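quick one before i forget lol
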Amino acid sequence: MQKPEIPSDEQIRLETLRSLDILDTPAEEQFDRLTRTAKRLFGVPIALVSLVDENRQWFKSCMGLNTRETSRDISFCGHAILGNGVFIIPDALADERFSDNPLVLNEPNIRFYAGCPLRAPNGSKLGTLCIIDRQPKNFGNEDIEALMDLASMVERELAAVQMATMDELTGISNRRGFMMLAQHSLNLCTRQKIPATLIFFDLDKFKPINDTFGHEEGDHVLGVFASRMKIVFRDSDIIARLGGDEFVALLNNTSEDHAKEFIARFIQSLESYNREAKRGYEISFSHGIVEFNPDKHSMIKTLLADGDLLMYQLKKSRL
């Protein structure tokens, strides 16, 4: 049996999946409707919306199967997310990668498998819409196109879920998305004894910009601030707009001193933008930096509150 490899973007992929807050949630009709359609359209006994977690594949929709998850090591979907097209196994017993797989030798006795990767808006492959038969099966081009069409509908449903955790204006996480992602990250840091540091941002003189140049210009400022965060901070860092003109970044495997280096680079990035843009104002910010203490910050809301307090103290000292 061949275990599926780990995608190169695994950390971002898992963060994207978990930001949906969809794992281990009850069945929902908008997903079940699509697996029922797939099951009926292709004449197969099993159709799944499978989401590939760190060590398991979990089924958001499960038609024809009694279990809600299996190990990732034996999953067909773990292989499917490694490619861009539909992953097809006409006869698992004749394929050396799967011929001795427990899912082939035992229930559900997979012979045929076809899985189309499900992509998030950022390109991460979260899982598959897959169909399974207990008999070998041929799968032609029209079948492939039909499965891809259904998968695109699942992707739209997943995107709708993600929109609830994303800030529409800036394209980064909103407060809800940040709180979920950051809590997962802190739990990992605690288990692995990894340092982390939170930076709480508040834009300076944002109201005068809105009042003088209009709210459309204010929205432009928020977009620029978020885009500069994306440039300066790492893919592994969790950045978000909490609301209004407040932003946050959680830096994993980062000490407070190292976080100060990021702040220096971020200031330089904004200063460079201000010099080039010349829009009649300058984008600047106050911030609070707080290093994660597992004994004190078991919940992300406590770490966030400490960062907010430090930011406020800095802003007040400038008045």
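fyi Strands lie at 46-52, 56-63, 69-71, 87-89, 112-119, 125-133, 196-203, 238-243, 246-252, 285-291.
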